[in-house]
Every structure is written in structure tokens, then in C-alpha cells.
Amino acid sequence: MTTTPRTSPEIGGMGHSLKRKEDPRFIRGQGNYVDDVSLPGMLHMDIVRSPFAHARIKKIDTTAALKVPGVLAVITGETLAQFNLHWMPTLMSDTQMVLPTEKVMYQAQEVAAVIATDRYTAADGVAAVEVDYDPLPVVVDPFKALEPGAPVLRTDKKDKKDNRIFHWEVGDRAGTDQAFKDAAAVVKQRIYIPRIHVASIETCGCVASFNKTDGKLTVWMTTQAPHAIRTVFALVAGHVGLSEEKIRIISPDIGGGFGGKVPVYPGYVIAVAASVVTGKPVKWVEDRMENLQADSFARDYHIDAELAADKDGRMTALRIKTLADHGYADAAANPSKFPAGLFSICTGSYDIKSAFVEVDGVYTNKAPGGIAYRCSFRVTEAAHAIERMVDVLAQQLKIDPALLRMKNFIPPDKFPYKSATGWEYDSGNYAGALNKAMDQIGYAALRKEQADKRARGELMGIGICSFTEIVGAGPSKHFDILGIKMFDSCELRVHPTGKALARFGTKSQGQGHETTYAQIIAEELGIPAAHVQVEEGDTDTAPYGLGTYASRSTPVAGAAGAMAARKVRDKAKKIAAHLLEVAEEDLVWEPGKFSVKGAPNKAKTIQEIALAAYTNHPQGMEAGLEAVNYYDPPNLTFPFGSYICVVDIDRGTGEVKIRRFVAIDDCGNIINPMIVQGQVHGGLTMGMAPALLEEISYDESGNIQGGSFMDYLVPTAVETPKWETGHTVTPSPHHPLGAKGVGESATVGAPPAIANAVVDALAHLGVTHIDIPITPEKVWRILKDKGVAE
Amino acid sequence: MARHTVRLTVNGTPREADVESRLLLVHLLRESFRLTGTHIGCDTTHCGACTVLLDGVPVKSCTVLAVQADGRKVTTVEGLETDKLHPIQEAFMEEHGLQCGFCTPGMMLTSAALLEKTKNPGEDEIRHAISGNLCRCTGYVNIVKAVQHAAAKLG
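^ inputs. structure came back:
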């Protein structure tokens, strides 16, 4: 099912699979990514990184490095300390070193930066910097980090006596405890969701260019949130003369973001400092190992989950206690009031009366972070917890997992639905999506096939996930980042010839905003999408917005686009009434023109009206046809879906093969079906990746395992199955277009579907849970243990 | 460090450069010749964003020295289009085989080389052929479709 278009293909509004406006430049290699920026006299920066996870720096000797021909400077923490720029705030109001003056706190931490005439010379300089370290005790295990007597890591914080960052809780503790006491059935499970990395194919970097004459700083930067970055730079470096009106952040084409390009990394700040000091442009682009080892990670949640049910299998209560390993600093990218993001969406798609959730954040000697990996602020962790627990319960109760879900779904007539953890779900039809998925995959036949195979000793599993997402942050009452409310914006100008320019506060990283936003304007004004130029990412020209992450572009900036277009339409109506010499009430709108009621031949097109706005506007009205909207969403949106995965397991190798995967998504009304399907394909692959392949772990000494593409296994086309997709459409009642956002749904929904399928394949052997990534080795060990390995 | 003069043909045009022995082909293309369509995504020859054709064979230009390209023919993404788009370029656009565009040049060159030697590759063959090129956005489904689309067009 797709949304039926209201506009003609020539206009190309919502529901049309318009080819992307971005593509002509990308297929010719004419995209403009940060590393493609080259300025006259540009210098290059490379970074010295710590081999130790925790050590005191005894000495940094830059003598040999400075002798390398072409090396101009070596910047250390001491250099930055002269300007009080050696520390910076994180987005979670924690602090983080830019460069150390005393200690390093994680392997691959930035220690010094070499500035040179070209990138090879800068690397020579890095090799020549000698650092003398005195290793310190390393804290790797987050549970041990909280034990009494554990070394206190953040000695820079005066009164800090332990390694706890925060304790956060939501829900009704007493009520939930009581519900567990009264329950007929209770299941418990420890679930670890390991540390992973977004690994966008473009790494992070910037070109910082400070003009000493006019004091203007321009930074081309791999950022998903250019406006917020500008303000952060002004706040962090205001004391050295960087003033917000003189800072211009340009986020050019971005080679994938997925949340990894939200934070401010030390490299950006050092490059800016280097440009200010040298007066020359400085380029810094990290390599892949730096990217994987030092940039913000995702997940790393140790979850203890308990689910209670009555004798009929109706879920009554959920209790979750989680330890969140944030590494050396809380450098997550959550809304400020949500230290564990939107993890409290963990009651999922189910009508569970009581819930209590608590999360403790912990410091360890690991790279700092806690960003999203293509999801809305910890919703993947939440979905994994509840969707695994539902299957654990189904297994204990010996109920088919599809049936257990159907029995417990929030019914369609209960929306808007207030969850036990306080969210108000906007709309949903969960049974509709699951039924469609079951029909499409042939669920009953698969269960029969599984029974037959099991009798023959073959291992086949079927896994279901019926997730609910929470995206589109967010209403300003609750959602801000460093105090800046999470609105987003559109500035729309209609030119005299009826063509339009629309600028937004977000920033696409591959999602196709230039196309989708143009379609929104086309839908609302009837100006062909081909004639709507969309721009974003340049803080000197685009209106202020919080950026693109957490599937917020369509829910927030897309809504701003629709509202700006409606403002333009209101003015256009006044002009049309003037031109047609009728009252406004006598006009009717259809995409592209106003006509007089009962006299459809008396009409003015939006193009005629646009021309009149500049040539023949009514007396007393301002000339021009433009509008700005800063959209503050009344609520979040709640996309959902049901996924079913079929796996076969090789008893000889433990390899899990995904035979089929059906994904039914409901993201409300669809703007561009082709783009939506592409987002789902990509999201599914980024869901499969942590389910089967990806993990960054640390050994006892804090050495990173999985710090390069040698051993951090990003899926190739060979491991990736042929995804089967479909949709149901349940519009959001509060979004002006009824849309909900889709970029991340599949990343949220895929991992539990896969994990549930593997566990299902092994359930008859007594297996109730396997932590992701479910590697062949992990499965083979289970098979061996159960005596069924071949 | 020793320097060398390399002479090579890039997208049909003879080019010459004075290079250090250690200069990588990808940097020669991107920085000396300003052909920035060839991208860099890793340092371990895994991602394939830097794929170019060396005498018609896909290579990862981050693992080829500029001096190794001396006397040879290099095709980059900028050389795919002649008086009209190459069928693989058209197919990627038609089938929505790209999102952020960063892996796209390498992916298209690998695919174009496959179609040069194999007329109608099957899905498995395509998936194996592009398995040295990582894409984080598309999930490969539409890339496979694009290669099939181009194959049909090329007959």
C-alpha cells in the first residue's frame, strides 16, 4: 500500500517516486565532500594518538618532528592551554579533553597534532613525535568500575569520588514491583548490546579557514548539525575572539552520517585552533582506524530485563535495569533532559500497565560517546530488550510468538495511547502490520516446514519483531540540546517566475532531502518539484535548525516546509482574490491554482500569482512571496513495523544464513516511495550488521579489538540478503502531512528479528537467549555444547 | 625521498607528474589531477571507495603506488561519461542505487568492469563482484538491480 498521489507527475508532490535531484552530480563524481575542498595555501593536520588506555604523560618531545622538512608546528595540550582551549563541553554537559596536558584516558586518544604542508609530511611528523607515558591502572569492565575501590577515572572533576555519571529512572517502581509479585509468569534475561560504530564510508574531517583580516572563520565540516556546531564553537571559543556572526559552518555533501557526525570531535577543534594560529586553511581528515577507534561509538548497554504476565499470557509489567558504558566521557548526543535518550520507549508495541526503567551511566577507559547508529536516541536498545523478552516469555509459556504479540498489542482504538513510561503514542495498527508480514512470508507454512526440518535434525528458525519507534524530536517543552530547543525550520521564497528556493535547518547525508523537501513544497503549492531548489548545510544562508539525526528531518523540518508553504499559500490566496476580484472565501485551491467556486475557468495559477506578488500586488500588502517557519512539533511520531526473518543454521560451521526477511513498515503517509524503500533497505542492512557481524570490544588492558575494517566487519553484498519490503499506512494525526519518518526504523527492527530467529532455531535444545553479534563461533560453541555440531 | 616522473593516460588524456616514490595513486588522482570523484574510505583496502580501472581492471587506488601506474591507462568515474551517460550511471540513478554517493564511483567502476567481461551476470555473480566495495546506505538491493538494468541495456 502506498499513499495515492494528489498531484500530477509533472508537479511531483507526495506519493511520486521522483528520481533524485542529488544523483546527477553523484553519478559523475561531482559531489563535493569535505576532503574535496582545497584552498590556496592549505595546510594539513595529522594526529598523534595514545597507544595506552590510561597513562600519565611524562613528556612530549616535538624536537625531531619539527625538524621534518615541511612540518610547521606541533600542537599539544600545553599549546591549547595557553588559550584555555584544551577542554571542551560535550553535548551532554560533561567535559572532554581536546588535547591532554596530564593524562590520556583511552587508547587512540588525541595527544598532539602536527601541522604540515601536505598530508604525507604531516604523517612523517606524527611518526617523529616522541611521547613518554607512565601507564596507569585500566578500568574496562563497567560493573567493576562501580565497585568500591575502583580507580576513580575523572580526577579532573574536583568532587568526583566514583565512576558513576548519572542515575536515571522513569516509571512506577512500587507499582511495578507489586505487579511482579502478583504475576503468574515472570521471565528474566541479561542482554548485552555491544559497542558498535556507524562506520559511514566517509570518515570525519574538516577544512578550517580563518581569515585574520576580517576575523571570519569558515569551516567545511562533516556535520549533521551545522547550526548547533556554530553556536557551540562560539560558546567554546568566544573568549579568544570567535564571535558567532563571524563563524560560518558549511556542511557540504556528507558521505553517510548515521549519528556519527553529530558530536564535536577534538580534531575539529584543533584544526580550527591551528588555522587561527597560522592564519592559513587547515585540513584534517581522519583515517578509518582513527574513525573506528576514537570517534563516538553506539550502544554498549548491559540490560537486565524482567517481564511479567498473567496466566493467560497478558503482559502486566516490565522492569529494566541497565548499565550504560559511556567510556571516558559522556559524549552522547541525546536531548539534554534524556541521559539515556528515549530508552524508556521499552514497553514497545504492548499494552503493559506497569513499567519501571533505570539506567546508570558509567565511566571507563574507552573512547567517549553514546551516539545513535542510525536510530533515535537509544530506541534500538529499547526495542531489542522488549522484543527479545517477548520471545523469552513466549518460549516459557509455550505460546507462538506471533500469537503472544497479537494478544498484547496496543489495540488501534486505544490511540493516542499513554504508555506506562509516559509517552503518548500518536497512532498505530500493530496487528495490521504483523498480519501483513505473516501473510507475505507465509508464516503457517514456515512453521510446518520448521517442524519437519527439526524432525530431520536440521536447524531452521523464524523470528518476529514488532517494534515501535519514537522519532522526530521534539516538542520544545521537553527537548533541547544544550538549551537550544529542538525545533527545525524552513525558509521559502517563491521567485517572480513561479520557481522556488527552500532552505532548511537540517542536513542530508544521503537521505535525499533535495528531492523529498521539493516534493513537500510541490504538494503544498503545486510548483513542480523540479522547480524547487532545496538548500541546507550553510549556516550563512540556511535558517537555524538542529540538524538531521533521529529521523527528525521529515517529522520536524518537513513539517516546517509544509507550514511555510501554507503561509505562502495564504498570501497567494489574497493576491488571487485581488487578481480575480472576488472575496477570498470564494476561492478554492487545488495543487497549483486558485479558482472561483462554481466558475472553474476563472482561475490563477501559482505562477501567475507569484508574478503578481512582484508586479501587481494589492495596495497595502508587502511585495514578494516568501515565508519562514520554525516548527515546534506538538508530539513525537511513532513509526512502527513488523519484521519476520527466516534463518538456516549450518551445523558444521555455526553460520547463520538469512533465507528470507520480510519487513512491513508503517511510517505514516509516504512522500517518495522509492526513497522510503531505499531507506528501509539500508536500515535493514545496518540492523543485520550488529546482529551478526559488528562489535568493538576491548581487552583487559583497554586495547581495542575491531579497530579497523580488517576486523570490524561491515556487511558486503554477499552477506546481505535480498530484503523484501512492504507497507501499511497509518498517518500521524499531528504531523501536517501525516508523515512519521523512516530512515532508522529498519535498524531498530532488524536485530531482534534476526536474534529471535536464531534462538528459535535452537529453542528445542533449551537455548533461550544469545547476545548479538551472533557470530558463527558463538553458534558453533552452542551446537557443540548441545551435542549437535557436525 | 626519491622522485619519479610518471606518465599515464587518465580518462583518455595523457598526463604527467613528478611524484615521490611513496605517493599513492589515489592521491595522484585526487590531489595532483584534482579528479575528486575517486574517494577514500579506509586504509586497509577493504571499502573500495577508491576503486579505479587500471588498464580496464578494477583496483583499489589506495593500495597502488602512483609509480605503478606509469605507462598505463587509468579510468576514473569522471571518465565513464562520453557524449552521454554510461549505462551504469543511468542505471544507478534509475534504480535508486545510491544514497550518499560516497561509494558510488567505485561501485559503478567495479560494475562497469564486470559488465565488460560478463554479458548477463546473475545476482550471485553481481554480489560477489561488488563484494570488495562497501556501501553503508543502500543495503545493496538496488545496486544489484542497477547492474542488472545496465546489463539489459548493454544487451
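Chain A touches chain B through 58 residues (CB under 8 Å). The radius of gyration of chain A is 27 Å.
thumbs up if we can close this ticket
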